[in-house]
Amino acid sequence: MYPLKEGQTFPRNQWYIAAWAHEVGRELLARQILGEPLVFYRTESGMPVALDNRCPHRRYPLSKGRLVRDSVQCGYHGLTYDCTGKCTAIPSQDSVPPTYAVRAYPVHQAWEWLWVWMGDPALADIALIPDSRTIKVDDPDWLPEVGGRVPLKARYQLLNENLLDLSHLSFLHSDNIGSAGVATAPVSVEERETHLEVARYIKSDRLDHLPVGKAFGLEGLTDRTMIQKFFAPSFHATGSDFDSAMSGGIDPGRHFGSLRVLHGVTPETATTTHYFWGFSRDFKRDDARMTEAMRSVIESALVQDIEALEEIEAMLAGGEGDIAEISARADAASLRGRRMVERQIENDGPARGAAVLHDMRANATASREPV
Question: Which pLDDT tens digit goes with each residue over 59-113?
């Protein structure tokens, strides 16, 4: 499915952000991930749990039921499932067939995110989750902040490619975080062991008139270093380092500050996305007003991105017609990222997505007859 190869949607043997940690507690939370209905909660000890949200008895959503200690009781006929997905009670009979179960998904909390593994649980290695120090949420010199979750009515790969080609800052975000220098700066793209890294170096730029410049307290000409990290298929750390310009700055080399914006890109369905965002900075860490100023600047840019991507999705819904895609030099990182996601889908194996879902539900569907 565009912009991926025909027939491709998303890789399943990957970690995806499913929720902010504070969203999941002792209330049942329903959320669709990769087209699959899931229900989340925490055990009495605080351990996060993710189960298939469909009771295999008559497909009633388990999220409409209730917690009984650490188990979920279906609100339709009372079948109860423990945190491993095993059915432990059927009120209308004394015995429970050993094959009765719902699928349980591996879940891991890292910083303030809950990550869920959507593929083969035997492959769920938490070392594949982006390193918390690398993305500046576990660094004593940085202050990380929880952002929010935005429902995006567009396919996830459009957001991935939006974040990988930041030349659009000069146009779509010209009134808040962009400048002419972003689009014209040379771009380097390097595929590292764990992620794709993209860099832009904008020299002697003018930003002090923009909301981002005012929030940072930028003065005069500024050197802006933009480093992006893409952990395919679903996480980006973007942002900038701002310094007084070495050529023409009021205090050459002075560091104004650095900001990283964190983007969790989780497919809800083939054409809708959960957009999780947060941020981290290395300056004025004890200044609450600075936190809110940064939040305001980021949110204003997110609104513009969301509007643009939903316009594109609406165009795609109307059919692509005979218009062939064209690319520019600035698309190098987006196209590299696209290839990375396509390889991940291919590595799931031929028809692997459907096979994984079939295998995972085998126990739940093995016996349907009353015992």
Answer: 999 999 999 999 999 999 999 999 999 999 999 999 999 999 999 999 999 999 9
Radius of gyration from C-alpha coordinates of the chain = 23
pTM of the model: 0.92
293 φψ region: left (φ > 0), alpha (ψ -120 to 50), beta (else): alpha
The token duo for 271 is 């054409």
Q: How far apart are the first and last CA of the chain?
A: 44
Report yes or no: 258 and 144 within 8 Å, Cβ to Cβ.
no
What pLDDT does 350 receive?
57
For helices 156-164 and 288-317, what crossing angle results, to 10°?
A: 120
Look-up of token digits 């965002």 = 277
**For residue 157, with 0-12 CB atoms within 10 Å meaning exposed, 13-18 middle and 19 or more buried, which class applies?**
buried
What domains appear along the chain, each with residue ranges and CATH number?
Answer: 15-124+358-365 (2.102.10.10), 131-320 (3.90.380.10)
Ramachandran angles phi, psi of 186, nearest 5°? -60, 150
